[in-house]
Amino acid sequence: MRMEKKLPQPICGQEAVNLLNCVSESKFDQEKCVLLLQSLRECVLSKKVKKFSIPSEDHNQDGAASLSKRP
Asked: Record's PANTHER family (predicted)?
């Protein structure tokens, strides 16, 4: 059996991704995005997050944040 490496999940990373995906949807749902913003804010406060950063392409590793554009 092969063991896969699990990279640590960034603190509040899923909440941040959910919010970013919400605001990028073609059918923008402001109420949904506000709820996701509140969820991210609660996570940031509870985990005492000071700052977010996105790895640059020069330092991109497997599992790091990436950007995709719509066609």
From this structure: COX19-LIKE CHCH FAMILY PROTEIN (PTHR37750:SF1)
Taking the model in full, what pTM does it have? 0.66
> Within 13 Å, how many C-alpha atoms sit on residue 9's CB side?
7
How far is Cα 53 from Cα 16, in angstroms, rounded to an integer? 11
Please tell me the distance from the alpha carbon of residue 45 to that of residue 48, in angstroms, as a whole number: 5
In Å, how far are 39, 40, 46, 50, 61 from 55, measured between CA atoms? Answer: 23, 20, 24, 16, 8
Render pLDDT for 16-67 as a digit per residue (tens, 0 to 9). 999 999 999 999 999 999 999 999 999 999 999 888 887 776 654 444 444 4
- Nearest residue to 10 via CA among 20, 2, 1: 20
